[in-house]
Amino acid sequence: MCPDPGGCDTETLVNRIAHALRNPVFAASLQAELAAARSPDPAIGKVMEHLTRLDELINEMLLFGRPQIQLRDVQPVALLNEVAASMAADTEGTAPDIRVNGGVGPMTAFWDPLAVTLILKRLLKNAVENSPPPHTIMIELTQSSDDGVEIAVIDHGKGINEELQDQVFLPFFPQHQGKAGLGLSVALKFATALGGAIDLVPNPGGGTRAIVHLPLRAEPPDS
Description:
By secondary structure, the chain is of the alpha+beta class. About 45% of the residues lie in helices and about 20% in strands. The chain is built from five helices and seven strands; from the N terminus they run H-H-E-H-E-E-H-E-E-H-E-E. Helix 2 runs parallel beside helix 5 (about 185-195) and helix 3 (about 75-90) packs across helix 4.
């Protein structure tokens, strides 16, 4: 039995842990920056790298714990092109070749553009990490029904073991090179908040298709 009337669900727990960690991690980062300014010790740089990674993880935990949705009219094809360009610019090392095919998609949709961007960036990151250079990734937008669309992120990597397809969305399930994270969990969380879902299926010819199913007009989660 949960002794806390505020809730003991996974989202609430993750959110509380993230808030509890945020202040000490921020304070430690400030101290590390001061130490780095006084000393060229490379060990301090390594500490700062780990603290940066921890801060990124805390931000992911906060997103997972409490997704916020703000709906408005958007142009899906334009949004996908913006995400593709941003992802290519932000990726370290060899920039991925991300192509958008939205020829049969809807002209407008009622979505939260930030939520859709968040979903796609995490799926694109996963596709890049699990496919060989030059990381050619395709984004396909199709209108699957009168009131629904599909956005497929397609890579040409080694694919995902069928036995793991459902587990990869679990919080902190080991993903790229065995590293535990929240990327796919956050993506699914926001897709669900928009009234949608995500499927991972084998891509004909090799690789994976991460398919985001979204209603053409999303409704507020509390409606």
